[in-house]
């Protein structure tokens, strides 16, 4: 009987509950971010959830009782595995507010979520400026080629 070999080092990025026609650009956003951080091995799940569900996650794990647009959980630093939850309603509202297409808003938050997995934070002014500068640069590369 032949034994099946599982390649535990294979890279993947999965998307759950996202519009199928957005997945390719979101995957590109994540990969650009991973490359910018020199991450060669990765396993990331993106999960779109309701405002209610993301609020529950934020309350349970961050002790913050409010809706957020994105929340990231690093599962393993060694294998660079993580889960990124994105709120559907919140991102749709933000897209309208910032005059972006929803696809662009989702890509922006995919970048943001991956940067959180890489250790970036936005909890104080200095780190927020550093993170958003990097995030904006990656976003511009994705949507303007530059």
Description:
With 146 residues, the chain is an alpha/beta fold. The protein has one domain (12-144): Collagenase (Catalytic Domain) (3-Layer(aba) Sandwich). Helix content is 49%, strand content 18%. It contains five helices and four strands; from the N terminus they run E-H-E-H-E-E-H-H-H. It has helices at residues 23-36, 51-62, 88-97, 102-117, 125-144; strands at 12-16, 43-49, 70-76, 81-87. It has a four-stranded mixed beta sheet with strand order 1-2-4-3. Helix 1 (23-36) links the parallel strand 1 (12-16) and strand 2. The longest helix has 20 residues, at 125-144.
Query: What is the 3D form?
Result: globular
What is the CA–CA distance across the termini?
A: 53 Å
Fraction of helical residues: 40-55%
Please count the beta strands (DSSP E, at least 2 residues each): 4
Query: Looking across the biggest beta sheet, what order are the strands in?
Result: 1-2-4-3
For the record, the CATH class is Alpha Beta
Mean of pLDDT: 91
What gyration radius follows from the Cα positions, in whole Å?
16 Å
Please identify, by name, the CATH architecture. 3-Layer(aba) Sandwich
Q: How is the CATH topology named?
A: Collagenase (Catalytic Domain)
> What can be said about the biggest beta sheet?
4 strands, mixed
Taking pLDDT < 50 over at least 5 consecutive residues as the criterion, the unreliable ranges are 1-7
Whole-number total of structural domains: 1
- As a percent range, the share of strand residues is 15-25%
Instruction: Give the helix tally.
Output: 5
Helix/strand class: alpha/beta
* CATH homology-level superfamily: Metalloproteases ("zincins"), catalytic domain
Q: Helices and strands, in N-to-C order? A: EHEHEEHHH
């Amino acid at each position: 009987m032949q034994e099946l070999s599982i390649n535990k080092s294979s890279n993947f990025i999965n998307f759950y509950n996202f519009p199928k026609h957005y997945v390719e650009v979101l995957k590109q956003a994540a990969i650009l971010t991973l490359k910018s951080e020199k991450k060669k091995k990765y396993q990331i799940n993106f999960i779109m959830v309701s405002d209610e569900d993301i609020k529950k996650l934020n309350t349970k794990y961050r002790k913050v009782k409010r809706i957020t647009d994105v929340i990231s959980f690093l599962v393993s630093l060694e294998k660079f595995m993580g889960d990124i939850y994105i709120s559907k309603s919140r991102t749709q509202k933000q897209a309208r507010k910032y005059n972006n297409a929803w696809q662009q808003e989702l890509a922006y938050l995919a970048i943001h979520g991956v940067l959180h997995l890489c250790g970036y934070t936005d909890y104080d002014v200095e780190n927020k400026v550093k993170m958003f500068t990097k995030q904006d640069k990656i976003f511009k590369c994705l949507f303007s080629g530059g």
